[in-house]
Amino acid sequence: MANYIFELPMKVRDYECDLQGIVNNANYQHYLEHARHEFLLSAGASFSQLHQQGIDPVVARISMAFKTPLRSGDRFVCKLYLKKEGIKYVFYQDIYRTDPSDGSQKLSLKGVVEAVCVVNGRLAGCGQLDRLFEKYL
Fold first, then answer.
1. Which of 64, 66, 75, 83 is nearest to 105 (CA)?
2. Looking at the annotation, which residues are catalytic?
3. Whole-angstrom Cα distance, residue 47 to residue 1?
4. What is the Rg, in whole angstroms, of the alpha carbon atoms belonging to the chain?
5. pLDDT tens, residue by residue, 92-137
6. CA of 36: how far to CAs of 15, 22, 72, 96, 126, in Å?
7. 10 CB-near residues (< 8 Å, 6+ apart)
8. 46: how many CB neighbours lie within 10 A of its CB?
9. pTM for the complete prediction?
10. Of 27, 41, 70, 112, which residue is the least packed, with the fewest Cβ within 10 Å?
């Protein structure tokens, strides 16, 4: 079992679904990104603040394994934990569909997002994020 450090409940909106009635694959990236942004806010920073300081965290690689589709109206929770590998921050993010009748959860997606920092236009380590995330690593 993963040791999640952050969870964000969400709900599927109609326009996120394709003709098959399931969430379009690209929207899962939006869910993962939204959860990372909210995690960053909960840790005490925002992307706009970081950008103003010349720090731009960017996605270098993303991997998603689809398990069970989400459908319109489904409630789900995006959970994450974080590891540091060299200058990369690796976010392990899982999405679970929540059953409204009993609150049980079924795995919908397993994602791994590798992010790096561009500091003043150059790929670099980021001491500010290291300090911000140290209690989670």
1. 75
2. 18
3. 30
4. 16
5. 999 999 999 999 999 999 999 999 999 999 999 999 999 999 999 8
6. 22, 23, 22, 16, 17
7. 31, 34, 75, 76, 77, 78
8. 12
9. 0.94
10. 41
